[in-house]
Write a structure and sequence with these properties.
It is a single chain. The protein is an alpha+beta fold. The protein has 3 domains: about 80 residues, no CATH class; about 60 residues, no CATH class; about 150 residues, Lipocalin (Beta Barrel). About 35% of the residues lie in helices and about 25% in strands. α1 runs parallel beside α2, α2 packs across α3 and α4 crosses α6. The longest helix is centred in the first third of the chain and has 39 residues.
């Protein structure tokens, strides 16, 4: 009897040890798909994971692969954002073309941005899968299809503006919510090296939230914005530089020992520009911009663009 109980306990522990990593894998999978969909479509999609990935493949390549969902999401993420030494990322190619043709980074969904380049280069909008269209445009526009990459350093203290893409309220926010943001402006290093692009995808997460209450208690939302990604998908550690008035975390009710590095508290003391208190709740409208600064030097790969 004793032996059977021991065996049962071992089996239970094994089950738990497999469940926890799987949950973490699912979380990373969701993050990758969210970033991809926001880049391509403007917003996250609502279908099952397998269907969402299949649709992304169809729209980019015109076909679906036999990879697992995790393999697909990793490949698609790197194809769009990271690239390799032998093949630039889709985002690098697209941004270079926009600067060459329009002297600025485009805005909107991937389809909208490609359509503008199509009209400029071939006079009409192609119906080919988006990745193929981009390759054709690169070779039609750029001599030998070559784009110059450079390794540069984004120094500590570099200011980056972020823009919130949806409303945020302490009334409706819940812990774990994803709050979509984008980079508000292109970031150039050494003149013409594009290291971060306007519209670059940034994700914040609600770490804590408190509803407004009686006796004048005002709600607050605590956002985790500790890392953003450069053009080559390198992580840049950041801290909040400007969120309106400076805040005192003891007055707002942050947990003891919580760091303000990379955390933004939206409450009665620390309000982002554009945020306001309404009925005891913190309301932050879409379009609100926040200023962050990098906390460490980071070497990244950027694109030499024909900036005029």
């Amino acid at each position: 009897m004793k032996l059977s109980r021991i065996i049962a306990m071992i089996l239970l522990m094994c089950c738990l040890s497999t469940v926890l990593p799987a949950a973490e894998v699912d979380r990373e999978l969701d993050k990758r798909i969210s970033r991809i969909e926001r880049y391509i479509y403007g917003d996250e999609q609502s279908a099952a994971v397998a269907d969402r990935l299949r649709q992304i493949e169809e729209d980019l390549f015109g076909r679906s692969t036999g990879q697992t969902d995790s393999e697909k999401s990793r490949y698609l993420h790197d194809f769009i954002f990271k690239g390799s030494a032998s093949n630039l990322s889709l985002d690098m190619k697209l941004s270079f073309l926009e600067w060459k043709l329009f002297n600025k980074t485009g805005e909107g969904t991937l389809e909208v941005r490609l359509a503008e380049i199509d009209k400029k280069v071939i006079g009409n909008v192609s119906m080919e899968p988006m990745a193929f269209r981009l390759e054709q445009l690169v070779h039609l526009t750029i001599e030998r299809g070559l784009i110059s990459l450079h390794t540069v350093t984004i120094p500590a203290g570099t200011e980056i503006r972020l823009r919130m893409k949806k409303d945020l309220s302490s009334r409706t926010a819940t812990k774990g919510d994803t709050i979509p943001m984008v980079v508000a402006d292109d970031l150039f290093i050494s003149g013409n090296i594009l290291a971060m692009t306007k519209g670059g995808i940034v994700t914040a997460e609600v770490k804590n939230v408190r509803r407004g209450g009686r006796f004048g208690r005002t709600g607050y939302v605590n956002l985790d914005v500790r890392n953003i990604e450069s053009m080559d998908a390198s992580l840049l550690p950041i801290k909040i530089e400007d969120a309106g008035s400076k805040f005192d975390k003891r007055k707002i009710g942050m947990a003891a020992g919580a760091s303000t590095l990379g955390y933004l508290v939206l409450g009665p003391i620390g309000l982002a520009g554009g945020a306001f208190i309404k009925g005891g709740e913190v309301e932050v409208p879409a379009g609100t911009e926040l200023s962050v600064v990098t906390t460490e030097d980071r070497k990244v790969t950027g694109v030499l663009v024909p900036r005029r």
